[in-house]
Amino acid sequence: MKSKKARSIIRKGDFTYIGYNGCRYRDERAIEKSAALEAIKIAEQEIEEHIQAKAHKIILDMMTGIFHGDMPRKIADEFIQKLTEDEVD
């Protein structure tokens, strides 16, 4: 798993205990559903941020060859803003 935050939530998740012959053993394969859902949410946010940063850099690099000054950065910023607005709708 690439998301360090998600991996940490999974590792900190509540584990279940099983009994066998009067002894209790920790089942490390099971975590609470809420911890798993939180880990998924964080992983999705991280990948979304990564894709947006990558898209911003690509647009900025492409526009730098065409425009001068702050214009390439403004175009890249506006692109990311429009991209995020579309996700909310």
Strand sequence of the main sheet, in spatial order? 1-2
N-to-C CA distance: 29 Å
Main sheet characteristics? 2 strands, antiparallel
User: Roughly how much helix do the residues carry, as a percent range?
Assistant: 55-70%
Number of structural units classed as domains: 1
User: Given the structure, what is the number of helices?
Assistant: 3
Order of helices and strands: HEEHH
> Spans of 5+ residues with little confidence (pLDDT < 50)?
none
Indicate the radius of gyration in whole angstroms.
Answer: 22 Å
Mean of all residue-level pLDDT scores: 79
The beta-strand count equals: 2
Basic shape = rod-shaped
Strand content: 5-15%
Task: Give your account of this protein's structure.
- The protein is mainly alpha-helical.
- The chain has one domain (4-88).
- 66% of the residues lie in helices and 11% in strands.
- It is built from three helices and two strands; from the N terminus they run αββαα.
- It has helices at 4-12, 33-64, 71-88, and strands spanning 16-20, 23-27.
- The chain has a two-stranded antiparallel ribbon.
- β1 (16-20) and β2 form a beta hairpin.
- α2 (33-64) runs antiparallel to α3 (71-88).
- The radius of gyration is 22 Å and the shape is rod-shaped.
- The mean pLDDT is 79.
Task: Give the topology.
Elements: H1 4-12, E1 16-20, E2 23-27, H2 33-64, H3 71-88
Antiparallel strand pairs: 1-2
